[in-house]
Amino acid sequence: MKTGILEVLLVNAKGIRHTNIVGTPSYYVIIECGSLSERSKISSGKNEKPCWNQKFIFDFSSLDCKVNSTYLKCKIMDTELFTNDGFVGEAKVDIDRIITEGSEQGYIEIKPAAYNVVLEDDTYKGQIKIGFKFIANKEKYVMRKSRIQC
Asked: Over the stretch 15-43, which tens digit does the pLDDT of each residue have?
């Protein structure tokens, strides 16, 4: 059974499009994994290379593994002052192999890598850098995390 903890490290983006009409862009990312969703903090860094350096943890129960959990979707949004936030683009990462190998080996880590950002018209503009860890045994993850904090 494919259960465990998926850590997602949202690092940065580069070359993404700017949607602001006025002012400097402030980006955040909505990360969807199965039926779970998380929102990042507002980016720091320059307009050309927004930076988050933020970790997200998704707990994979057997229910999550059965429903829509083969892809991780990262939707980049730009905060707008006077209108609704603007959609910048999204990256869709196939995580099925990460989960499968992590379940078989007990642990897998994928160093941060760049993924293309897809626009509404299915063209690409820019990249987002994301890293992954999958720990199959939740108890080991809790023990490992408590050792790091000591």
From this structure: 998 766 666 778 999 999 888 899 999 99
List, as own/partner pairs, every contact residues 103-111 make where C-beta atoms lie below 8 angstroms and the sequence separation is at least 24, other chains included.
Answer: 103/1, 103/2, 103/3, 103/4, 103/134, 103/136, 105/136, 106/135, 106/136, 106/137, 106/140, 107/133, 107/134, 107/135, 107/136, 107/140, 108/132, 108/133, 108/134, 109/133
| Nearby residues of 98 by Cβ (< 8 Å), 6 or more positions away | 6, 108, 110, 132, 134
Phi, psi of 95 (to 5 degrees): -105, 0
Q: What SS3 state is found at 102? A: helix
Residue 106 pLDDT > 80: yes
Q: How many CA atoms lie within 13 A of 130 on its CB side?
A: 25
Pairing of strands 51-60, 4-14: antiparallel
- List, in order, residues 6 or more apart from 121 with CB less than 8 Å away: none
The one-letter code for the residue type at 127 is: Q
